[in-house]
């Protein structure tokens, strides 16, 4: 039955954010600007870290991986959403929907694990500064990054296989993209098992890194309080401020979307929260890490200086 439905369901219709043409045009302009800022901002972060030897540290290595993940995540949903804003028929082929859900879920899951790895990096930097370069060596950083990406892709593959093997009753998705909870609403069978799987996945992908972040920052705060000089405490806090801001946005949004009781949520609320997570957060990440980080701003000034000299 499931395979027959999948063959018949050759495409899905996305309802998007609005049916009003004027609103869609306004949203197109707004999200096009946000999309360009997101891609250019994250690409600039990667470029600065690649070109400036002063940024060749574990902290900035993880930041470059995070920027790459944000670019991939944004490109999995936003370009299609922009096209649909100006289209009368908002359809997506079945296989494109599967690929979109797989990539967006993989990138989102990987981001949580990366934020956990970055919290561990900050913990080592603040609590064990003399052994930082020994502990956070290159092989460990590469292994942590690869593990974060691998765990994200494994979780995404499991979820995608389970979801798209279910029989589907209709093909109208009340969302701007093929999002996991929105696709589950199309099924015509009992999805209690799938809800349990979503809860388990959420616990592993969201709560485990969240607990690692909380543990790391409890130890970091304790270490900072033992620093006698006010200048030393301020410098130690500045190394963590940007990461803590991004962590608060990402984990707060994801917990609100996936781990709250289903009875208290609606499709429209989930759509708005998912929009914030898919569009706003990847745009803010490079802004937060650049505006609140003196080393990144210094690297940007040096790059601009070199470019002006060549002219």
From TrEMBL:
Q: What does this protein do?
A: Putative odorant or sperm cell receptor.
Question: Which superkingdom heads the taxonomic lineage of this protein's source?
Answer: Eukaryota
Q: Where are the transmembrane segments?
A: 25-48, 60-78, 98-120, 140-164, 196-218, 239-260, 272-291
The molecular function terms of the Gene Ontology recorded here are: G protein-coupled receptor activity; olfactory receptor activity
The UniProt similarity line reads: Belongs to the G-protein coupled receptor 1 family.
Q: Which UniProt keywords apply?
A: Cell membrane, G-protein coupled receptor, Membrane, Olfaction, Receptor, Sensory transduction, Transducer, Transmembrane, Transmembrane helix
Per UniProt, subcellular location reads as: Cell membrane
How does this chain sit within the bilayer? Multi-pass membrane protein
**What name has this protein been given in UniProt?**
Olfactory receptor
Q: Top-down, what is the taxonomic lineage of the species of origin?
A: Eukaryota, Metazoa, Chordata, Craniata, Vertebrata
For this UniProt entry, what's an example GO CC term?
plasma membrane
InterPro entries per the UniProt record, alphabetical: GPCR_Rhodpsn (IPR000276), GPCR_Rhodpsn_7TM (IPR017452), Olfact_rcpt (IPR000725)
- G-protein coupled receptors family 1 profile domain residues: 41-289
